[in-house]
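tool=predict chain=A
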Amino acid sequence: MEFPNELKELFPNEIVEVRGNAEALTIILGKEIDIKVFAKKLETKFVNLNYTYDLFLHHEDSHDFLKLTLK
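tool=predict ok
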């Protein structure tokens, strides 16, 4: 699975850009997206993964971020 590309394809209206490598990704969200709600979507969709992924979620116009670890 190509995790970064899959994220962008699954959430095209929420995700502006995905950066990083397979272990640590920065996900830039549209400014109208609620980061906490989006994080819950990811936690619900991606459970029991073969690898651990650290995701850093933030809005395109902000430097604040939320760290989320998917396992």
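Helices lie at 3-10, 35-45. The chain has two helices and four strands.
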